Each structure stands twice: as structure tokens, then as C-alpha cells.
Amino acid sequence: MIFKQLFEPVSSTYTYLVGCEQTGQAVLIDPVVSVMERDLAVLSELGLKLAYTLDTHIHADHITAALELKSKVGSKIAAPAFDRLPCTDHAIEEGQPFVVGSVQIEPLHTPGHTDGHFSYRLGERVFTGDALLIDGCGRTDFQNGDAPTLYKSVKEKLFCLPEDTLVYPGHDYQNRRVSSIGQEKNRNPRLGDQKTLEEFIEIMGNLHLPYPKFIDYAVPGNRLCGVCPSHLPEELEKYCQQITESKQG
């Protein structure tokens, strides 16, 4: 299997490329529209053809590249069936492996950050989106998020995986790239070290985070599999610029 971890600095988003060496087919997990030309360049360098994009959830902090990549290279769009997006080609459900060539991904429904959130297990790796971050987790105060539900998802779906399973999160804001289930169980300040549900609810209820500045544009755009709004405030344009125009490229 071919594997690459890619980083988009405006929203601090990780995109993951997994490819089948036998067929040359590849999947991009959580691609970001502003850096899709970079992703296509990496695919070309590796001699891979993009078969699918696969999102963990409807993002609130960036626009997915799913629709633009489909238009440009003919890749298909996979996303959680829970969200009932009419623009998807393949609906992801727990218990139904997602197979591309020799790559077999096990979908795990891990709601709580959003109600339709999925994590994806691939062998010794698990791509946790915003459900489980390194020393943290996604917030639970919008998009039908719910702290008790996230606690249950992490404890019963993710923390039950082997402890040496590598955790690849959807974001990191401190230049960290990978963790493990064992590490998060032991030291995650929100969910690890035997934190109780009551403690977790209190922690999440006292974060006092600001309203996400891009959410009102990102969520409707991502419900269409990645449509950038036609009239964005100037300070938010960086979230939709293509790589050729973006200083973050």
C-alpha cells in the first residue's frame, strides 16, 4: 500500500492519500479544495489515478475538494450515507467495507462532533477525522454535536482498537502528525486516563470556543460536496482559493 499524509495550513487540515500498488488506484481522505492541485501533483508523481475522495464528515472549517476533483479527473465521491448527500457516488455505512483495489477500509460511525461523523480503519491505522485528535477531540456544540455521544464513540469504537493502532487525526494545530490508541487512552486530557462521562461533559461545556468563522459558508458548500460560495468576504477567500492563487500553496 502507498500512503501519504498531506497538510493544509489555513485550516490545519490533514489529507490522507492511500493507494493500491497493484491497480494504481488511490483514495484521498478529507481533501481540501484550496490545495487540490498539490494533491494531484503528488498522485502524478506516484503514478496513481484518483478513484475516490472520501470525507469523514461535513466539514465546517474548509471546503472539500470532492466535487472539483470529480470534475477535473473523474474521481467518484464517497461520503457517509447518514448525511444523505445527493452528490455522492458511494454511500459509506458501518459494517460494509470500502474497497478500492487492494485497499480495504473499515468504516466506523463515530458521531458526537457531528451526527454523521465517520472514522476509517485501514490495517494498523485509523483516520479519526475530528472525533479524536492528538491530546484532544473535536468540539460538540454545532452540527448536531453532542458530548455524551462523542464520549461513547471514542470509548466504544476507537479505544477498543488495539493500542498500537496509529491515530491519524483530521487536524492538528501544534505540528504533530500521528499518535496511537494507547497514547490517547493514557494521556488525552479530555478522554484518556479514565476520564468519566461527567468529567468529559464538564470539560466540553467549559471550552467557551468562538463561533467558527467559516461554518456558515463551509457547511452548505460541503452539503453540495464542495461548492465555494460566490460571494465570500475578503478575509475568508483563502479558504476557497486554488493552489495557483494561494500564498499557502
The gross shape turns out to be globular
CATH architecture of the largest domain: 4-Layer Sandwich
The description of the largest β-sheet is: 6 strands, mixed
Overall SS class: alpha/beta
User: How do the SSEs run, as a string of H and E?
Assistant: EEEHEHEEEEEEHEEHHH
Any idea of the CATH class of the largest domain?
Answer: Alpha Beta
Low-confidence stretches: 243-249
The radius of gyration computed from the alpha-carbon positions, rounded to a whole number of angstroms, is: 17 Å
Question: What's the number of extended β-strand segments?
Answer: 12
Distance between the termini: 27 Å
Overall pLDDT: 94
Short description:
With 249 residues, the chain is α/β, with parallel strands linked by helices.
Helix and strand layout, with pairings?
Layout: E1 2-8, E2 13-19, E3 25-29, H1 36-46, E4 49-54, H2 66-73, E5 76-80, E6 90-92, E7 98-100, E8 103-109, E9 118-122, E10 125-129, H3 147-158, E11 166-169, E12 179-180, H4 181-187, H5 197-205, H6 215-222
Parallel strand pairs: 3-4, 4-5, 5-6, 10-11
Antiparallel strand pairs: 1-2, 2-3, 7-8, 8-9, 9-10, 11-12
Pfam families: Lactamase_B
InterPro entries: Metallo-B-lactamas, Mito_Persulfide_Diox, POD-like_MBL-fold, RibonucZ/Hydroxyglut_hydro
Protein name: MBL fold metallo-hydrolase
What does this structure look like?
The protein is of the alpha/beta class and 249 residues long. The protein folds into 2 domains: 127 residues, Metallo-beta-lactamase, Chain A (4-Layer Sandwich), CATH 3.60.15.10; 100 residues, Ribonuclease Z/Hydroxyacylglutathione hydrolase-like (Metallo-beta-lactamase, Chain A, 4-Layer Sandwich). It is built from 6 helices and 12 strands. The strands form 2 sheets. A 6-stranded mixed beta sheet has the order 1-2-3-4-5-6, covered by helices on one side. The chain is globular, with a radius of gyration of 17 Å. The protein starts with a strand and ends in a 27-residue tail after the last helix. It comes from Limnobacter profundi. InterPro entries: Metallo-B-lactamas, Mito_Persulfide_Diox, POD-like_MBL-fold, RibonucZ/Hydroxyglut_hydro. This is MBL fold metallo-hydrolase. Keywords: Metal-binding.
